[in-house]
Amino acid sequence: MKDKVRFAIRVDGKVQGVWFRQTTKDKAEELGLTGTVENLEDGSVYIEAEGSEDDLGKLLMFCTTGSQNAEVKGVTLVKVPIIGYQGFSIK
């Protein structure tokens, strides 16, 4: 079994009000990831996701385009310590 890792991902651009959080949750669940996704006050979206690096890489690729009406301007990520999420939720 591959080691589990956790990424903190920030997505900037037109990413609120375009179903970005829901489609991120759907993609994360499809990949078997756990974590959270939430809107930030500055208009960006913040994601914490845990799983294999391969599957997290697939989520990261999704984040570069996002939902159908999103206009992603930038994606940043930081590898952070595992905290053991159960499921994937929208905050």
Contiguous helical run count: 2
Please tally the β strands and state the result: 5
Strands of the widest sheet, in order across it, are 4-1-3-2-5
What structural class results from the helix and strand content?
alpha+beta
Question: What is the terminal-to-terminal distance?
Answer: 30 Å
Supply the number of structural domains.
Answer: 1
Outline the biggest β-sheet.
5 strands, mixed
What does this structure look like?
Helices cover 25% and strands 40% of the residues. It has helices at residues 20-31, 53-63; strands at residues 5-14, 34-39, 45-51, 71-80, 88-90. It has a single domain, classed as Alpha-Beta Plaits. Helix 1 (20-31) runs antiparallel to helix 2 (53-63). With 91 residues, the protein is α+β, with helices and mostly antiparallel strands. The mean pLDDT is 96. A hairpin with a 5-residue loop joins strand 2 and strand 3 (45-51).
